[in-house]
Amino acid sequence: MPFTIGQFLEVFAAYNRAVFPMQVILVSAALLAIFLAVKASKSSSKFISTILAFLWLWMGAAYHLSFFSSINPVAVLFGAFFIFEAVILFYTGVLKDELSFRFRFDTSGVLGILLILYALVVYPLLGIVFGHVYPQSPTFGLPCPTTIFTFGLLMWTDKKVPWYILPIPFLWSLIGIAAALSLGIWEDIALPLAGIIGTAVLLWHNRIRFA
User: Fold this and answer.
1) Are 116 and 153 in contact (CB under 8 A)?
2) Is pTM beyond 0.90 here?
3) H/E/C letters for each residue in 41-109?
């Protein structure tokens, strides 16, 4: 790692102070996406896709490029990929209308609930337990909890997901584990599980479109 745990936590603190109260807006957007997936009206999937695209754009521009890059030059590359993922989500889910979110009480639906609850509730609570108290904490809207949330919502899709949506979130789910192992951000330990389980369940239920 090209930075220390102290520097890493200070980036969180600088970010959280600078963007407040944006954290509240981001969580509200996530709750709206959940509500829309449960309600599942004709236009709800486009709104959910817009929310997901905005979250990935925010992570790329507002966190990676604006803050994380100050201690890690590779964050510029991370930011570019996150912004590219935002473009993919907007193009696929909004312009082409190829993403359909509808909560169903089945295996993938329940696993999606667990991932979403982890991202929004368990993750910040574990952060407090592990001593990552606000503002030195990875709040929702930062890459790791938001990637877990993304996989949770993808588990609620009711038609095949184009394959090209998954590589960037999946790769980040593997890269992000370094924070848990090297820096003691133990709440991130669920990140690779979210990527592996989310992708595996979509494959198992034949909900990834490769053509």
Assistant:
1) yes
2) yes
3) CCCHHHHHHHHHHHHHHHHHHHHHHCCHHHCCCCHHHHHHHHHHHHHHHHHHHHHCCCCCECCCCCHHH
Question: Which residues fall within 8 angstroms of residue 25, CB to CB, at 6 or more apart?
Answer: none
Q: Which helix (H) or strand (E) holds 162?
A: strand 161-162
Q: Which residues of the chain have pLDDT under 50?
A: none
CB 12 within 8 A of CB 138: yes
Distance CA(55)–CA(184), nearest Å, equals 25
Contact of 98 with 163, CB cutoff 8 Å: no
CB atoms within 10 A of CB 155: 29
Model pLDDT, residue 128: 95
- Per the document, the length of the chain is 211
Residue-wise pLDDT tens digits, 64-80? 999 999 999 999 999 99
Q: How far apart are CA 89 and CA 83, in angstroms?
A: 10
Type of residue found at 97: D
Q: What is the Cα–Cα distance from 170 to 174, expressed in whole angstroms?
A: 7
Nearest by Cα to 141 from 50, 42, 19:
19
The SS3 of residue 2 is coil
CA distances from 199 to 108, 151, 173 (A): 11, 8, 11
How far from each other are the two terminal CA atoms of the chain, in whole angstroms?
Answer: 38
